[in-house]
């Protein structure tokens, strides 16, 4: 879009604003928090009614909501837009998730949709559309990042199972991930994982991945996704476990000390290697990864549904899946299945209830369960894969043991309970009603 046009360099905010056509569109790509507030404070006095400020960083959605309100008296329109794609997205087109003041959308839509990644049979459908009012755009980007945490942790667990449990080489792992990337797991993260296993460290001549310290960093969006899931009362368990796994990885020195004291099952991995079929176990790991990925996205979209209802955003979930289909870090062929699911049933309660995903999990279930039980037996941690299976089993369970929990709460705190056979709220005098223990 900028080809053949002149780019004017400006040294001051005043000079910059002077060169912009009305309505002026000022886009910030700065660190969330105070830097955003400081940039707004710098530019807002120079702008007029109808001008637009766009925040393209990872701002907290509540900050975006507040800034919209603060700029309203001056007539400045505000867009908080999530942007995903990394370095390649900057060059080839990102996924863009704008929200905020809808009046501004018509003025930025041609720009955003022209630079966004494109998908579809003719590669002409932009991975960008209006998300919703207030902080909707930044909330959706936050959940995108939370799902990204889950995807990455699941892949790491699959890697650990194949490398540590059955001793596959990096060359073998390269071939496996290359094969996986041609099927249901076709995605950017699987693709780059394949590539990683082929890279040699020029300093040591070893595989570069093997000389990287196992201490994960994070920017906080996964943690925030989990915190807001707790606020909404929704079980985003896999994403939260992925965040906790990064926390545990960061405790490197403590883990080194613990490894010299705490024992796991002795000789379990060696015994497993002599009895298992490599190809069979690798396929079971693939099944566990795919089923867990389905649960992760089911949880992420369930959180988006709850947030949409809470804030009155009226999110279009099929459209969100399409926006993530290209450009962003979690882009995957799998997202087309999610779009189709919401096209079939816009009010779908949970992705697991869509016929495609119900059948897909059923086909993977035996291998998934075998992987989780094997990992526990031989002492390899799989927090995300296990959390996904526990979520699946909990969600499909008509009656959970929390009748006992409610009884406990009523016993010690008179918190009351409901009954299965009549309406109302009840309390029992458990101490008086109990059976006396025998002497």
Walkthrough of the structure:
With 439 residues, the protein is an alpha/beta fold. The protein folds into three domains: 13-130, 3-Layer(aba) Sandwich (Rossmann fold); 141-396, Orthogonal Bundle (N-(1-d-carboxylethyl)-l-norvaline Dehydrogenase, domain 2); 401-433, Up-down Bundle (Single alpha-helices involved in coiled-coils or other helix-helix interfaces). Helices cover 55% and strands 6% of the residues. The strands form two sheets. It has a five-stranded mixed β-sheet, with helices on both faces. A two-stranded antiparallel sheet has the order 5-6. Strand 1, helix 2 and strand 2 (52-55) form a beta-alpha-beta unit. Helix 9 crosses helix 10. The longest helix is centred in the last third of the chain and has 34 residues, at 278-311. It is globular. The N and C termini lie far apart (86 Å). The mean pLDDT is 94.
Which labels suit this protein?
about 450 residues, alpha/beta, Rossmann fold, Single alpha-helices involved in coiled-coils or other helix-helix interfaces, two-stranded antiparallel ribbon, 19 helices, about 55% helix, about 5% strand, globular
How much strand?
Answer: 5-15%
- When the domains are counted, the total is 3
Q: What separation lies between the terminal Cα atoms?
A: 86 Å
Order of helices and strands: HEHEHEHEHEEEHHHHHHHHHHHHHH
State the strand order across the main sheet.
1-2-3-4-7
CATH topology of the largest domain: N-(1-d-carboxylethyl)-l-norvaline Dehydrogenase, domain 2
CATH architecture of the largest domain: Orthogonal Bundle
